[in-house]
Amino acid sequence: ELGVERRFVPESCPREVRPGDFVRYHYLGSFPDGTRFDSSYDRGSTFNVFVGKGQLIAGMDKALVGMCVNERRFVKIPPKLAYGSEGVPGVIPPNAVLHFDVLLIDLWNSEDEVQVQTYFRPEKCPRTVQVSDFVRYHYNGTFLDGTLFDSSHNRMRTYDTYVGIGWLIPGMDQGLLGMCVGEKRIITIPPFLAYGEEGDGKEIPGQASLVFDVVLLDLHNPKDGIVIENQLVPESCERRSQTGDFLRYHYNGTLLDGTLFDSSYSRNHTYDTYVGKGYVIAGMDEGLLGVCTGEKRRIIIPPHLGYGEEGRGNIPGSAVLVFDIHVVDFHNPSDSVSITVNYKPSNCTVLSKKGDYLKYHYNASLLDGTLLDSTHSLGKTYNIVLGSGQVVVGMDMGLQDMCVGERRTVVIPPHLGYGEDGVEGEVPGSAVLVFDIELLELVSGLPEGYMFVWNGEVSPNLFEEIDQNHDGEVLLEEFSEYIKAQVDSGKGKLAPGFDFEKIVKNMFTNQDRDGNGKVTAEEFKLKDQEAKEEHDEL
Questions:
Q1: Of 19, 156, 433, 445, which sees the most CB atoms within 10 A?
Q2: What pTM was estimated for this model as a whole?
Q3: pLDDT at position 531, please?
Q4: 343 part of the active site
Q5: Which CATH number applies to 115-220?
């Protein structure tokens, strides 16, 4: 009688050998006294054969039926189910009972198809693998008995390939179809859809079933463009970015599987660049067009519009990039100051001009609303002489033609503000500034070029009046006392907003033409006299 002893049966047995199946197994063949007559282990290869088709001795054909992969059986085969009364000359004597210690390695059928078992699928799956898509995935490749033959994880590099165009074995081409990024599946491939009778000539033997444990990391098609997903668009959007604009934005950059590769937030500094000029990758150049200040959007960029097949830094080759951006501000180099009048008094006849002394309150912020500074919090006004370079050029422009009590919003592009460098610790480089201003006081200035004017007629004996000790020379002290007396009495007026001593010293230096610290009657001239002499000389 045929004797079958099941010495090891695996816990999981999804499939058993049936007649017509193809099997790969190892065995030790011996006689009842323990003498070995054959062994597949000695040859270093499995025994590969169809079951139930007469390719085996009758006893082995029966003994293999019902076996699982990784099952071990001890089989006793009587002569009538083995080599009978003839035996095998030189190997098996006549009427020999044969013992086989069998371990099943592989099992398949010519009618098998690729088997796919998904054991994880993301909740969100906007896109699945289709024919001609390019994918990046990790895998562990094993035989049906669990023996590992290859792993992309060990190489620390994804396997990157097109699907469905013959770059892969047919079974993998089929098994990857329909996968989502992030999905994990086990793909079991029979040998006729893998490496067939010959194997790969290296690690994979002929007629081997293959099992791939796959996780899909990336997916795109060469025809893909960028994808924009709007996450937050401000209700008020007066202006959208165009080619040639300069943008400041924050971003998180990830791969399609969520792996973070870069972030401007971690550097605590926006990324600043021109748009549509080739300063950034093509996909970002396109994705940044049409944004509003304050907008948040997701830009998905295929590799041919990103860093291509080579990748860059910690970005692998052929990687799809996902940028979550937040636009902080943008401007154009051709922009001028923008003025919006929020309130103007009904009596608005005296307007600010160059040289006027102004006192005003302001709130200063970035275009995204971040507060930079406020005179209200300091409890005092900001005081300047308009057009004298005491503030940035854009503020000098924004304060022109304003009346006391007026409130306006002044938007200043960086080239009229603090430029590319900004103010360290206070104003970021290339930042657009927004000032909400209220003018509280205006003191009219003097005509351009004048630091002092007379309110009435000028004395014909002006030099003698200044030269109080009548020695024919005027010193700085005499000059200063005289000017102060004229201002105090209302006969003269100094340019408002400047330091008295500095103005007087400047006026005295202009009169002290030989620079000896004294002004003589010959040196002393009024401004209109200087202008007349220069005209006559010309």
A1: 433
A2: 0.78
A3: 54
A4: no
A5: 3.10.50.40
Classify domain 452-520 at the CATH superfamily level: EF-hand (1.10.238.10)
Catalytically annotated residue among 25, 83, 249, 435: 83
Q: Which of 38, 150, 262, 368 is catalytic?
A: 38
Q: Is 74 a catalytic residue?
A: no
In the residue annotation, 192 being an active-site residue is answered as: no
- Cα R_g (the chain), whole angstroms: 46
Rounded distance between C-alpha atoms, residue 510 and residue 247, angstroms: 48
Give 536's contacts (C-beta < 8 A, 6+ positions apart): none
| Among 239, 238, 230, 319, residue whose Cα is nearest residue 281 | 319
Active site residue 362: no
Q: Same CATH topology for 338-443 and 452-520?
A: no
Number of H helices, E strands in the chain: 12, 28
CA distances from 78 to 17, 82, 514 (A): 22, 6, 136
Class of domain 3-108: alpha beta
Catalytic status, residue 435? no
Question: Domain 338-443, what architecture?
Answer: Roll (3.10)
Which CATH code fits 227-331? 3.10.50.40
What does the domain layout of the chain look like in residue ranges? 3-108, 115-220, 227-331, 338-443, 452-520
Which one of the listed residues 22, 25, 27, 137 is annotated catalytic? Answer: 27
Tens-digit pLDDT profile for residues 446-460:
887 778 888 878 878
Q: Which of 31, 47, 50, 57 is catalytic?
A: 57
pLDDT in tens, 211-223: 999 999 999 999 9
